[in-house]
Amino acid sequence: APRARRFGSICTGAFVLGHAGLLDGHRVTTHWHYTDRLIKGFPKATVETDRIYLQDGRLITSGGVTAGIDLALSIIAQDHGRQVAVDVAKVLLVVMKRQGGQAQFSPMTAAVAPLETPITRVQNQVLAQLDQPLSIVSMAALAGMSARHFARLFAKEVGMTPMAFVQGARIDRARHLLESTDLPLKTVAFRAGFGSVRHMRFLFSEKLGLNPTQYRQQFS
């Protein structure tokens, strides 16, 4: 690595570099399923969870296996110019640059734990009524707790705030509807509990890096 012009990894290859001490002090990425593990294993690196690929100086890392294609096209563009990279992308039947980041491929919320607790009961009830108004107060009432105690216990048990869970679950519900149905965006927004297409569009752009129409075009 000291003599290499560039070095890097694809997908979980970042862990090999990490064990060799080559991630320390660098901004890096890996597949979204393993980012938490990379963060814990190599605290001297800055892990960016939503990047398809990431170059930091001589080090280049990428997300999943196919993200290696994006990484390779980036290197070709640097060494031989953008047009050559575009021509290679056409031969490979891929786009030169994908829309959005890794967030569009990963679920916003983890599966509800199989253990029966007041918090998991609330989570399951929330998932069953995403199209209804939901607040910390109403969720706390379902758990039979004060809002403050509920919020604290929820964050400890789930790893996110109650409203972050609701928002993530609504995005996941909308994504499923966009992938599996031809429902109008207004209906998707209503069934997922966003209240309006505008609000759904804002959250998709903020969290996934692309709007609902773009998401449907890529995944349906």
From TrEMBL:
What range(s) does the HTH araC/xylS-type domain occupy? Answer: 120-218
According to the UniProt entry, its GO molecular function terms are:
DNA-binding transcription factor activity; sequence-specific DNA binding
Q: Which UniProt keywords apply?
A: Transcription, Transcription regulation
Q: Which InterPro entries match?
A: Class_I_gatase-like, DJ-1/PfpI, Homeodomain-like_sf, HTH_AraC, INH-QAR
Instruction: Please give the superkingdom of this protein's source.
Output: Bacteria
Q: Which Gene3D superfamilies match?
A: 3.40.50.880, Homeodomain-like (1.10.10.60)
Q: Which Pfam families match?
A: DJ-1_PfpI, HTH_18
UniProt protein name: Helix-turn-helix domain-containing protein
Q: What species is given as this protein's source? A: Pseudomonas edaphica
